[in-house]
Amino acid sequence: MHTFSGVGLKKTAIFTVGNDWKIIWKCDINSFEGGQYNVIISVVGSDGMPVDAIAINTICKTGNTGNSTEEHHGGTAYLDVNSEGAWTVTVQELK
Q1: Which terminus of the chain, N or C, has fewer Cβ atoms within 10 Å?
Q2: DSSP 3-state of 94
Q3: DSSP string, 52-83
Q4: What pTM does this model have?
Q5: How far is CA 13 from CA 59, 76, 78, 79, 93, in A?
Q6: CA 23 to CA 45: how far, in whole Å?
Q7: Nearest one of 79, 89, 92 to 21, comparing CA atoms
Q8: Gap between the Cα atoms of 81 and 33, Å rounded
Protein backbone atom coordinates (compact mmCIF):
# COMPACT_ATOMS: atom_id res chain seq x y z
CA MET A 1 0.00 0.00 0.00
CA HIS A 2 1.28 3.47 -0.91
CA THR A 3 -0.15 6.71 0.47
CA PHE A 4 0.55 10.15 -0.98
CA SER A 5 -0.74 13.55 0.06
CA GLY A 6 -0.36 17.13 -1.01
CA VAL A 7 -2.00 20.39 -1.95
CA GLY A 8 -2.48 21.39 -5.56
CA LEU A 9 -0.60 19.85 -8.48
CA LYS A 10 1.74 16.94 -7.77
CA LYS A 11 3.22 13.85 -9.34
CA THR A 12 3.66 10.98 -6.86
CA ALA A 13 6.66 8.72 -6.56
CA ILE A 14 6.75 5.74 -8.93
CA PHE A 15 5.22 2.56 -7.50
CA THR A 16 4.72 -1.02 -8.70
CA VAL A 17 1.34 -2.74 -8.64
CA GLY A 18 -0.22 -6.00 -9.77
CA ASN A 19 -3.11 -6.25 -12.23
CA ASP A 20 -5.87 -5.44 -9.70
CA TRP A 21 -5.61 -2.39 -7.45
CA LYS A 22 -7.57 0.63 -6.43
CA ILE A 23 -7.09 4.33 -5.90
CA ILE A 24 -8.67 5.60 -2.67
CA TRP A 25 -8.91 9.39 -2.52
CA LYS A 26 -9.87 11.87 0.18
CA CYS A 27 -10.04 15.65 0.16
CA ASP A 28 -10.49 18.46 2.68
CA ILE A 29 -13.11 21.06 1.75
CA ASN A 30 -11.67 23.39 4.41
CA SER A 31 -8.35 23.56 2.54
CA PHE A 32 -9.71 25.76 -0.27
CA GLU A 33 -11.30 29.15 0.18
CA GLY A 34 -14.17 28.43 -2.21
CA GLY A 35 -15.23 25.34 -0.24
CA GLN A 36 -15.16 23.09 -3.30
CA TYR A 37 -12.49 22.22 -5.84
CA ASN A 38 -11.44 19.76 -8.55
CA VAL A 39 -9.78 16.44 -7.83
CA ILE A 40 -8.43 14.95 -11.06
CA ILE A 41 -6.11 11.95 -10.92
CA SER A 42 -4.37 10.35 -13.89
CA VAL A 43 -2.41 7.09 -13.87
CA VAL A 44 0.82 7.44 -15.85
CA GLY A 45 3.26 4.66 -16.66
CA SER A 46 6.85 5.07 -15.49
CA ASP A 47 7.69 5.64 -19.18
CA GLY A 48 5.53 8.79 -19.13
CA MET A 49 2.73 7.30 -21.23
CA PRO A 50 -0.87 7.65 -19.95
CA VAL A 51 -2.34 4.41 -18.56
CA ASP A 52 -5.69 5.82 -17.37
CA ALA A 53 -5.80 9.50 -18.35
CA ILE A 54 -8.78 10.31 -16.15
CA ALA A 55 -8.98 7.68 -13.41
CA ILE A 56 -10.76 10.16 -11.13
CA ASN A 57 -12.45 13.44 -12.10
CA THR A 58 -14.66 14.86 -9.37
CA ILE A 59 -15.45 17.93 -7.31
CA CYS A 60 -14.45 17.91 -3.64
CA LYS A 61 -17.44 19.35 -1.79
CA THR A 62 -19.70 18.68 1.18
CA GLY A 63 -21.02 15.13 0.74
CA ASN A 64 -18.22 14.19 -1.68
CA THR A 65 -14.93 14.11 0.22
CA GLY A 66 -13.69 10.64 -0.70
CA ASN A 67 -14.24 7.54 -2.77
CA SER A 68 -12.30 4.91 -4.71
CA THR A 69 -11.93 3.42 -8.16
CA GLU A 70 -10.48 0.10 -9.29
CA GLU A 71 -7.69 -0.20 -11.82
CA HIS A 72 -6.86 -3.36 -13.78
CA HIS A 73 -3.40 -2.91 -15.27
CA GLY A 74 -0.18 -3.76 -13.50
CA GLY A 75 3.34 -2.46 -13.72
CA THR A 76 5.23 0.61 -12.65
CA ALA A 77 3.36 3.89 -12.63
CA TYR A 78 2.79 7.17 -10.82
CA LEU A 79 -0.26 9.33 -10.18
CA ASP A 80 -0.53 12.83 -11.61
CA VAL A 81 -2.84 14.78 -9.29
CA ASN A 82 -4.47 18.04 -10.42
CA SER A 83 -6.29 19.79 -7.59
CA GLU A 84 -6.63 23.22 -6.02
CA GLY A 85 -6.93 21.98 -2.42
CA ALA A 86 -5.56 19.31 -0.08
CA TRP A 87 -5.81 15.62 -0.98
CA THR A 88 -4.67 12.18 0.16
CA VAL A 89 -4.44 9.23 -2.22
CA THR A 90 -3.83 5.61 -1.28
CA VAL A 91 -2.89 2.92 -3.80
CA GLN A 92 -4.08 -0.44 -2.48
CA GLU A 93 -3.51 -3.76 -4.19
CA LEU A 94 -6.51 -6.10 -4.25
CA LYS A 95 -5.95 -9.68 -3.19
Answers
A1: C
A2: coil
A3: EEEEEEEEEBTTBSEEEEEE---EEEEEEEEE
A4: 0.94
A5: 24, 10, 6, 8, 16
A6: 15
A7: 92
A8: 19
